[in-house]
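Render this sequence as a predicted structure.
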Amino acid sequence: MGMLATRGGMDSMLNTIWLIVTALAFGGIVGKAGVLDRLITPVIEKAKSDGTLVASLVSSIVATNIITADQCIAIVLPGRMFKTAFARRGLAPVVLSRTVGDTTTPTSALIPWNSCGADMAATLGVGTWSYAPFAVFNIVSPLLTVAFAYAGIRMLRLAPAPAPTSQAPGKPQ
């Protein structure tokens, strides 16, 4: 127990905390400046099928994971950016959520400068590129998500809205 209590506590985690705080600040600035909207709008407009839309989201998540170095931002920013595109196609929000979940966390562990990859490498004492070939789930998960989307598997749809009635209930026309 003594070794657990004397390992540095918050002080030993400060580098990781600063990395996350800085990444979140960067993500907020980039999001508010509209940089991401300008980058993502042409991608969404070119996505003609549900499979292409999901593949675009997966690519955006991986790029965000690489650029921002934090999986929290890679969850929030692409999810927000693609939310209306998924809704316009009539896809249920669970499809967006599942795609984000299947991609963000697994791929963040494969990026050495990402907070997740850096933490895993430090904890395991093995470089990210050394364990990457053995991280089969991390590589296959986003690929299967795209394959399932193209095949139309579990691409749930929003329930159609009920048609409005023009008369009050119980009154004859």
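Summary. The mean pLDDT is 86. Residues 68 and 100 are 16 Å apart (CA to CA).
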